[in-house]
Design a protein that fits this description.
This is DevA family ABC transporter ATP-binding protein. The chain has helices spanning about 50-55, 80-85, 105-110, 120-135, 150-160, 180-195, 235-240, and strands at about 5-15, 25-35, 40, 65-70, 70-75, 90-95, 165-170, 200-205, 215-220, 225. By secondary structure, the protein is an alpha/beta fold. The structure holds adenosine-5'-triphosphate.
Length: about 240
């Protein structure tokens, strides 16, 4: 039985600029991502990775083609609908984007409290449990400035995964980290994602972490040049049949 994809992209094109300055950046992208899959996207600088990630994350409007998130079409979606969709996605960026005036717990708690039905005490308990899961229980009351890069990135992971979203998007999450911290961070992401059945799409130039992927896709000049689906261990048994 084949599961429905979390992300289904068909014939997607994207352009920047207007009139004579209009330039096509993405060309006929087709990509499906299935529940629980960890997909790594690589490719040279300027090949369109961040643009594609921001379209998938509902951070930009789809101009041409189809992009569905859990069966919901993003092409032509209103800003309100995009906001709703963003609530179902966890984001992890190179610059962790933590708020400096909030403690580790409060940074995670903010994400939990987007769900209005959760009480404050539940939100605190959930945030602390998640910080425990990323190995930061001792640092829950610290402010980001007093933590290392790797620890800050682990808070960002806790924040992205605390609501068990179906999809996490990560843009160069290890770029600012040393080898060991980078490794720790992706292994924590991988463990939590597998536990929760979350799909991860991770953009990276970091060759040291490619082995955590179920599948590697490569962008080149705005095209999906390579998709290793079925050749790397995939959690989707259907995709492994030849
Ligand atoms: N807001 C924008 N307006 C115009 N052009 C843009 C804009 N953002 C990106 N571009 C151009 O689109 C192309 C793709 O950029 P994008 O950031 O998606 O690539 P990337 O693969 O993520 O690169 P990197 O690995 O350096 O982050 C580049 O040529 C870039 O200069």
């Amino acid at each position: 039985m084949k599961k429905e994809p979390v992300i289904s992209i068909k014939n997607l094109n994207h352009y920047y600029g207007k009139g004579s300055l209009k330039k096509q950046i993405l060309f006929d992208i087709n990509l499906d991502i299935y529940p629980g899959e960890i997909v790594i996207m690589t490719g040279p600088s300027g090949s369109g990775k961040t643009t594609l990630l921001s379209l998938i994350g509902g951070l930009r409007s789809v101009q041409e083609g189809s992009l569905q998130f859990s069966g919901i079409e993003l092409y032509g979606a209103s800003q309100n609908k995009l906001v709703q969709i963003r609530r179902n996605i966890g984001y992890i960026f190179q610059a962790h984007n933590l708020l400096g005036f909030l403690t580790a717990t409060q940074n995670v708690q903010m994400a939990v409290e987007l769900n209005k039905t959760v009480s404050q005490s539940e939100a605190i308990a959930k945030s602390q449990a998640m910080l425990g899961a990323v190995g930061l229980q001792e640092r829950a009351s610290y402010y980001p400035d007093n933590l290392s890069g790797g620890q800050k990135q682990r808070i960002a992971i806790a924040r992205a995964l605390v609501n068990s979203p179906p999809l996490v998007l990560a843009d160069e999450p290890t770029a600012a980290l040393d080898k060991q911290s980078g490794r720790d961070v992706v292994e924590i992401m991988q463990g939590l994602a597998k536990e929760q059945g979350t799909s991860i799409l991770l953009v990276t130039h970091d060759n040291r972490i490619l082995d955590i992927a179920d599948r590697i896709v490569e962008m080149e000049d705005g095209l999906l040049a390579r998709d290793s689906q079925g050749t790397v261990t995939s959690p989707n048994p259907e995709s492994q049949k030849s």
